[in-house]
Amino acid sequence: MKKDQPYKGFEQGPIRPPSEAESLLIRITRNCPWNRCTFCPVYKGSQFSLRPVEHVLRDIDTVKQCVEAIVEAHQKGVSPSSALEKSGITDLNAYHGAYQFVAGGMQSIFLQDGNSLIIKPEELIRILQHLKQSFPTVKRITSYARSHTIARIKDAHLKEMADAGLNRIHIGMESGSDTVLKRVKKGSDKATQILAGQKVKRAGIQLSEYYMPGLGGKDLWEENGRETADALNQINPDFIRLRTLALPSAAPLTTEFRNGNFQKMGEIDTAKELLLFLQSLDGITSTVRSDHVLNLFQEVDGVLPDDKQKMIKPIEDFLALDPQEQLLYCIGRRTHRISRIEDLNNPLSRNYAQQICQQFGATVDNMDEVIDTIMQRFI
Fold first, then answer.
1. Omega before 305 within 30 of 0, i.e. cis
2. Does residue 182 come out as left (phi exceeding 0), alpha (psi in the -120 to 50 range) or beta?
3. Which residue from 44, 1, 29, 40 is spatially nearest to 186, judged by alpha carbons?
4. Digit-coded pLDDT (tens) for 320-336
5. Under a CB-based contact definition with an 8 Å cutoff, are residues 203 and 159 in contact?
6. So where are the chain's domains?
């Protein structure tokens, strides 16, 4: 991990969770310190580095200046561009970040990149305090973090971070199976995932854990579903977010698949794993979210335990369909012509799905191959 050179202006990293779409993005680190997960294409070929704290604080000051100029322009009824010119602000990246932040209501801030908690606790606390001073009305400050990193942070430091304003952490658990985690080079094991999750909860910080149906492939799908549910049952995170496995061209796991060393699951088998996973969740009060375009069932959305059966039902209904109906649903869902199982009863939605099947030559036998082609547009 190398620290950087002269300040080059406001920075934003390449990714953030969908739930942080309206957040101000503040970059603390660049890229990922681990960067070996075989399913992830994002930071491959990029070097990890820490941004000096003074650079981060300068980013915050610059974007605050931009926010003030934009808000003043709105109050005076003048264009944001004229406000920018009048303010003397020259950092367009900061201005665009501020504009999106203001448009979203200035409710949340997300700390980038892949593992912001890897910096020294006192440095993160300093950044958090400066953010709260600069934007006192913000309700949420969040960050990605690796379980391996959190497991090594003292509970007292995590509590200090919470007190300074960090109130949500996103962790990519992906799987609770040690076999799967080792195979995809996650750099963590089930026990560490559980320990880290429990530490976050003890600190009073909201926790989002991510589960990746399909990551175990055809040979480990049951273990992936059951073991992940077991780990989450021991953590009771605030949110469980579903991220169905996809195979982007730049991911090492895609090369393994093409070489015959990984057996990717199709839509029906992945639905079976998701059903097993949901059935295995027990004794927790987490909110489950299917908030990503890669997921087949957007109806899997609710709060445990009361909504468990409601979330299970659409998957059971799908698996009970005959193969031709499953084909229409999957193709329609993947092309945004169908949103829910009941849309199969809508003549217009059904007709759209049938037309797309004809366009792509999709059949029951080649459905998964066709869908893989379609999904490349989203990954």
1. yes
2. alpha
3. 40
4. 999 999 999 999 999 99
5. yes
6. 1-105, 146-320, 323-379
Residues 6+ positions from 152 with CB-CB distance below 8 Å: none
The predicted-structure confidence for 128-163, as pLDDT tens digits, reads as follows 999 999 999 999 999 999 999 999 999 999 999 999
Residues 87, 88, 91, 97, Cα dihedral to 10°: 10
pLDDT score, position 89: 82
For residues 44-71, b (16+ Cβ closer than 10 Å) or e, as one string?
A: eeeebbbbebebbbbbbebbbbbbebbe
- The whole-number pLDDT of residue 85 equals 75
Instruction: Give domain 146-320's CATH architecture.
Output: Alpha-Beta Barrel (3.20)
- 3-state secondary structure string across 83-151: HHHHHCCCCHHHHHHHHHHHHCCCCEEEEECCCHHHCCHHHHHHHHHHHHHHCCCCCEEEEEECHHHHC
Pairing relation of β-strands 29-30 and 49-50? Answer: antiparallel
